Amino acid sequence: MRTIDDKIIYELNLATPTPSFRSAVDPRTHCAELYRQLNQTYSERGSLIKQCEDEARGRLKAMQGQMANKRDDPMFMKKLRSEQSKVRELQNEATIEEIIRERSLKVFEEKCRHFYKPPPKSE
């Protein structure tokens, strides 16, 4: 799902050709479409990460509720630690996602600022 971020420089070079090639390519249209793709991808990835994190937290909470009865069960404790690790990994993934998003949008802004201005964020 991070293909578009991995290829952001290539995509931006296609979207913003040198002046000699601008007659063949409309940079406004390309930049607008790239921005739409980036936002769609960020929305999809963000919701998937959040969904996975919510599910892992739910399982962890259920396991923590059982912990009083199963504290002496080594298999249960191993599963509990594994679930705790999953939650931490998903939190890290959300942080990584934010870093990737910021990096890609910064590069987008540098290359497309003369051709396309994204709409203001609605928060």
Main attributes of the structure:
single chain, 123 residues, rod-shaped, MIX23, Protein MIX23
Walkthrough of the structure:
The protein is mostly helical and 123 residues long. It contains four helices and no strands. It starts with a helix and ends in an 11-residue tail after the last helix. 9% of the residues are buried.
Report the C-alpha radius of gyration, rounded. Answer: 21 Å
Major sheet summary line = none
**What percent of the residues sit in helical stretches (DSSP H or I)?**
over 70%
N- and C-termini, Cα separation:
24 Å
| Residue fraction in strands | under 5%
Order of helices and strands: HHHH
Shape: rod-shaped
Q: Count the strands?
A: 0
Number of helices: 4
Mean pLDDT across all amino acids: 87
Low-confidence stretches: none
Strand-pairing-aware structural class? mainly alpha
What secondary-structure arrangement, pairings included, does this model have?
Elements (H helix, E strand, L loop, with lengths): L2 H4 L1 H8 L11 H44 L3 H39 L11
Helix pairs in contact: 2-3, 2-4, 3-4
Task: Give a nutshell description of this structure.
Helix content is 77%, strand content 0%. It is rod-shaped and about 75 Å long.
